[in-house]
């Protein structure tokens, strides 16, 4: 989905999308400009931003940056795949509240039409106008 985001400093096209994964972590795939807008990257020039993976500390590809809400961190493609495949998604209320709070903050900041809530220790993801055809239940 392509959207425009504008603030006092710059205008850029939003390409962020929800990254579906087998353990149902709330993850958003970003580009380098979006990561820099969220203070996860460093703007080097008007045309180039650098974002380092929070796990391996290598530079992320400009189109393969993954924000993982339960850690409030970004990862490269290799590290997000390792994380999803080897991590447990905890369903205690404190962990879910932390994950949902950070996910909703980032979706609001980027203008992504998604919102998460907690219901019976499950995360429910829906679009912001709450239309039922976009309802997605994340089974634990």
Question: What do you see in this structure?
Answer:
The protein is an alpha+beta fold and 140 residues long. It has helices at residues 32-37, 77-86, 93-110; strands at 3-6, 11-14, 17-18, 27-30, 41-45, 48-51, 65-68, 73-75, 115-119, 122-126, 136-138. The strands form four sheets. It has a four-stranded antiparallel β-sheet. The radius of gyration is 15 Å and the shape is globular. The chain starts with a strand and ends with a strand.
Nutshell version of this structure?
With 140 residues, this protein is α+β, with helices and mostly antiparallel strands. It has one domain (3-138). It has helices at 32-37, 77-86, 93-110, and strands at residues 3-6, 11-14, 17-18, 27-30, 41-45, 48-51, 65-68, 73-75, 115-119, 122-126, 136-138.
